[in-house]
Design the sequence.
């Protein structure tokens, strides 16, 4: 079988991803907590695992640097990459919302929207026919409406605690998010058996 490369999102979903791979029978050398290594091998099953920043996973997969990616739907939607999404892995559950102060959406012909996900924000308001200006931030997005830099935010909500503690409320609920398995289109054509075998093993592990 051909060597296959899997790009795995670092961060809060990485432990669940590694556990799922282990229960599907993949075991990578030296993959301990807190390691600074970025490349791991399951030599027996000919799988190479690369650990990359979540936001970059779709890029690695679209460019063919990885055959498969394991990453949140948020980053897939934002990247708008040309790839296949084959499996919902069901962890990393959260949702996209529009949030702000209660009055944020009222009586405005044009909105300023702060987000880590400007493409998702733009697409949402475009569908509604509302022109917006986006401000791209890389974190602590909830601050933007509090200091008057934006009218609303488009961000991820999991428990709701961050919004609550900053006096913001959910104004609209958008897409449901969870971790997905994505595949490079050319790899799927040339390594079909290897990829299907990998997907089947993960599916069984999810069911088990
Ligand atoms: N409460 C949550 N906040 C953010 N992401 C969450 C949450 N719950 C689940 N996720 C999922 O976990 C993925 C990784 O989140 P994480 O915060 O580690 O990455 P990140 O956004 O790249 O972080 P950072 O930019 O702080 O390094 C997200 O892309 C999302 O799919
Ligand atoms: O609904 P909650 O459970 O409170 O989680 C949602 C928060 O988690 C994420 O931020 P993260 O922790 O990744 O920090 P960041 O500000 O650096 O993006 C997200 O952007 C929200 O701020």
Sequence:
């Amino acid at each position: 079988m051909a060597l296959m490369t899997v790009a795995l999102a670092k961060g809060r979903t990485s432990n669940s991803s590694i556990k799922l791979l282990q229960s599907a029978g993949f075991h990578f050398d030296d993959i301990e907590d807190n390691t600074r290594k970025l490349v791991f091998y399951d030599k027996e099953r000919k799988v190479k695992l690369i650990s990359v920043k979540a936001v970059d996973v779709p890029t690695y997969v679209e460019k063919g640097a990885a055959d498969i990616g394991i990453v949140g739907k948020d980053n897939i939607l934002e990247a708008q990459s040309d790839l296949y999404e084959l499996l919902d892995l069901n962890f990393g559950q959260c949702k996209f919302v529009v949030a702000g102060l209660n009055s944020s959406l009222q009586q405005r012909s044009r909105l300023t929207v702060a987000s880590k996900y400007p493409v998702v924000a733009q697409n949402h308001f475009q569908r509604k026919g509302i022109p917006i200006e986006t401000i791209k931030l890389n974190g602590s997005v909830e601050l933007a409406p509090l200091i008057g830099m934006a009218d609303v935010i488009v961000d991820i909500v999991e428990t709701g605690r961050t919004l609550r503690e900053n006096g913001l409320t959910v104004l609209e609920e958008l897409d449901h998010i969870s971790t997905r398995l994505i595949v490079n289109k050319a790899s799927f054509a040339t390594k079909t058996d290897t990829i299907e075998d990998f997907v089947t093993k993960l599916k069984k592990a999810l069911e088990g």
